[in-house]
């Protein structure tokens, strides 16, 4: 059977193929019978799967991050496609083509990295450039930065997603900053670079995406403050020149305020022009990515409208079918 990617799965389609498994749970239904719930993904997206009347053996047959071969069929549930599996087993090596599970190719990631480094090396302010260089020159950090996702599910939730997101913000910053003379474009670029930088350690992402213990306990904003202090110390040690305390405070403020509201996890509300700009650009890029994915995953392929999404309180208009 020719592979169908998650984004191509429709209602009542038979499925016999390999997916990447994550977030598996063995749960009881209302009658106390156990069922297996697991997220299945490929490079196009993710689908929820359930296996009814499951056992402990079914649960232990594979681990999160394994490639699994699934027999089953799809159905619509509350407007979304879900997969009802009759069997899930760990896939054999000869059944797996890892390219089917990589959203971004390595050549694309390398091109994005080159462009991003070019932008950051263009910073004119010496203190800002020195702090940026402390991160850019750290090969181990940059390797993780270019592989990490930007999140678990909401947006850019794939390997290379963090770089994809941050490069988009950097390009937006180059367009926006010149429009506002009182806005410091160099500080904004550094805030763009570092606002989610600690996701390299907050998340694990060798295959499936999950929280590290440190990420679960502290979160990326708190972790990033430590990273800034460490890299600032490295920059000072390298050339013997101090970094302005005010600069470090303003960069840290951008990090802890970039979610924009207390209820969204910000420790502070944005209080500088650069922090305000970062929050709104970050929100714009995240929303565009997540809404695009919702449209892409919508099972209403013959309608210009998506189904109603309770998480955003609306339907989305995709445009006339067959038109861009």
From TrEMBL:
CDD domains: YhaM_OBF_like (cd04492). One of its GO terms (molecular function) is hydrolase activity. It holds the Pfam family tRNA_anti-codon. Signal peptide: none annotated. This is 3'-5' exoribonuclease YhaM. SMART domains: HDc. Residues 158-296 form the HD/PDEase domain. It is an enzyme of class 3 (hydrolase). GO terms for biological process: rRNA 3'-end processing. Keywords: Hydrolase. It comes from the Bacteria. The keyword Hydrolase applies. PANTHER family: 3'-5' EXORIBONUCLEASE YHAM (PTHR37294:SF1). Its EC number is 3.1.-.-. InterPro entries: HD/PDEase_dom (IPR003607), HD_domain (IPR006674), NA-bd_OB-fold (IPR012340), NA-bd_OB_tRNA (IPR004365), YhaM_exoribonuc/phosphodiest (IPR050798).
């Amino acid at each position: 059977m020719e592979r169908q990617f998650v984004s191509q799965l429709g209602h009542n389609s038979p499925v016999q193929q390999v997916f990447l498994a994550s977030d598996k749970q063995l749960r009881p239904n209302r009658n106390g019978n156990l069922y297996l719930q697991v997220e299945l993904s490929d490079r196009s997206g993710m689908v929820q799967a359930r296996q009814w009347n499951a056992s402990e053996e079914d649960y232990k047959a594979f681990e999160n991050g394994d490639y699994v071969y699934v027999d089953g069929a799809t159905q619509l549930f509350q407007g979304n496609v879900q997969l009802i599996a009759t069997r899930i087993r760990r896939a054999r090596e000869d059944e797996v083509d890892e390219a089917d599970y990589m959203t971004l190719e390595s050549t694309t990631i390398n091109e994005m990295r080159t462009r991003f480094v070019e932008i950051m090396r263009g910073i004119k302010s010496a203190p800002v450039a020195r702090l940026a260089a402390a991160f850019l020159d750290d090969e181990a950090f940059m390797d993780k930065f270019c592989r990490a996702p930007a999140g678990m599910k909401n947006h850019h939730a794939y390997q290379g997603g963090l770089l994809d997101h941050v490069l988009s913000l950097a390009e937006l910053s180059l367009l926006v900053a010149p429009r506002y003379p009182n806005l410091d474009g160099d500080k904004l670029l550094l805030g763009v670079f570092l606002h989610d930088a600690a996701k390299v350690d907050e998340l694990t992402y060798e295959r499936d995406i999950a929280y590290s213990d440190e990420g679960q306990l502290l979160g990326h904003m708190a972790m990033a403050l430590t990273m800034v202090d460490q890299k600032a110390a490295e920059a000072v040690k390298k050339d013997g020149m101090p970094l302005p305390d005010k600069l470090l405070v303003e960069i840290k403020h951008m990090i802890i305020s970039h979610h924009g509201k207390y209820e969204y996890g910000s420790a502070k509300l944005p209080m500088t022009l650069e922090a305000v700009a970062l929050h709104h650009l970050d929100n714009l890029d995240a929303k565009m990515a997540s809404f695009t994915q919702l449209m892409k995953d919508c099972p209403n392929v013959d309608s210009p409208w998506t189904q109603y999404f309770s998480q955003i309180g609306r339907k989305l208009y995709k445009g006339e079918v067959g038109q861009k």
